[in-house]
C-alpha cells in the first residue's frame, strides 16, 4: 500500500487523484440495510474501502443520500469529505454529480459502498490507463462494462453527468457514453493482478452477505 503524505502524493503521481464512494443507495434488495456498514471481518465495508482508497489517492469523498445517513455514517467518515445528494430516486448519478463537483483531483475513481474486496493494484492500474484519456472502464468478455469500478477525468465526467441529469437520462452509463476518449480495460489485464476478480464483487442480497461471511 502507498504511504505518501496526502499533501505531497499528487506530486508523486504527477497529478492529483480523487476517489468517490457511493453510499447513498437504499439497499432495497436487502431490506433497506445500510450496505456500507456490513461487516468485513472486524470492520465495515465502508472502513475497508476508505482504507484501500486512501492508499492510492489524495482524497476520498463519500456521497450520502441525506443528513440522516450522513449522521449514521459519521463515526466512519471522520476526516473524509462527505457530499449530500441534491437529486433523489435517480440512482447513482446523483452521488456522481455531487462527488465530481466537489473533487479536487484531475482523475477520480468511482465505486459503490458494497465492494468489500477492492484491490488496490487494480485501482492503480485503472488510474494508469486513464491518464491522458477521459476514462478507464473495465470491460467483461461479453462487452458489459463496470462503470462503478472505474476511473474518470473529473471535469468531463461532471459535465456529462449534469447534462444526463438535465435530460432525465439516469442510466448509470449515460455520462460515460458521452465522453470523447474513454479506454476500456480488458479483464485479462485485471486478472494478472486479481486472478479471481474479487475486486468486482458487490453485495446486493442477504445471500451475498452470507457468502461473504457477514451477519
Describe the structure.
This protein has 9 helices and 9 strands. By secondary structure, the chain is an alpha/beta fold. The chain has one domain: Spore Coat Polysaccharide Biosynthesis Protein SpsA, Chain A (Alpha-Beta Complex). The strands form 2 sheets. It has a 7-stranded mixed sheet with strand order 5-4-1-6-8-7-9, with helices on both faces. α3 links the parallel β4 and β5. α4 packs across α6. The longest helix has 13 residues. The N terminus is likely disordered.
Name the features.
215 residues, alpha/beta, Spore Coat Polysaccharide Biosynthesis Protein SpsA, Chain A, 9 helices
The whole-number mean of residue pLDDT values reads 88
Examine the coordinates and then state which fold CATH places here, giving the name of the CATH topology: Spore Coat Polysaccharide Biosynthesis Protein SpsA, Chain A
Task: Identify the overall geometry.
Answer: globular
What distance separates the N and C termini? 28 Å
Point out poorly predicted stretches: 1-6
The secondary-structure class comes to alpha/beta
* CATH class identity: Alpha Beta
Helix percentage: 25-40%
Oligomer: single chain
Strand count, sense and barrel status of the largest sheet are:
7 strands, mixed
For the biggest β-sheet, the strand order reads 5-4-1-6-8-7-9
* Total domain units: 1
Radius of gyration: 16 Å
How many helices does DSSP assign? 9
The CATH superfamily bears the name Spore Coat Polysaccharide Biosynthesis Protein SpsA, Chain A
Instruction: Give me the strand/helix succession.
Output: HEEEHEHEHEHEEHHEHH
Q: Which architecture name does CATH use? A: Alpha-Beta Complex
Beta-strand segment tally: 9
Report the sheet-strand fraction: 15-25%
Amino acid at each position: 500500500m502507498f504511504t505518501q503524505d496526502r499533501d505531497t502524493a499528487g506530486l508523486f503521481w504527477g497529478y492529483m487523484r480523487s476517489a468517490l464512494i457511493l453510499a447513498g443507495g437504499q439497499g432495497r434488495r436487502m431490506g433497506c440495510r445500510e450496505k456500507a456498514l456490513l461487516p468485513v471481518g472486524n470492520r465495515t465495508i465502508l472502513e475497508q474501502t476508505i482504507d484501500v482508497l486512501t492508499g492510492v489517492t489524495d482524497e476520498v469523498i463519500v456521497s450520502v443520500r441525506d443528513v440522516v445517513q450522513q449522521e449514521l455514517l459519521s463515526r466512519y467518515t471522520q476526516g473524509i469529505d462527505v457530499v449530500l445528494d441534491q437529486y433523489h430516486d435517480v440512482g447513482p448519478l446523483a452521488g456522481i454529480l455531487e462527488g465530481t463537483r466537489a473533487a479536487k483531483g484531475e482523475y477520480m475513481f468511482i465505486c459503490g459502498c458494497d465492494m468489500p474486496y477492492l484491490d488496490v493494484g487494480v485501482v492503480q492500474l485503472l488510474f494508469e490507463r486513464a491518464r491522458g484519456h477521459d476514462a478507464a472502464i473495465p470491460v467483461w468478455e461479453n462487452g458489459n462494462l463496470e462503470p462503478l469500478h472505474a476511473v474518470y477525468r473529473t471535469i468531463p465526467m461532471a459535465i456529462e453527468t449534469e447534462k444526463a441529469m438535465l435530460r432525465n437520462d439516469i442510466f448509470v452509463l449515460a455520462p460515460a457514453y458521452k465522453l470523447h476518449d474513454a479506454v476500456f480495460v480488458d479483464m485479462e489485464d485485471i486478472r494478472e493482478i486479481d486472478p479471481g476478480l474479487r475486486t468486482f464483487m458487490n453485495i446486493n442480497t442477504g445471500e451475498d452477505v452470507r457468502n461473504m461471511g457477514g451477519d
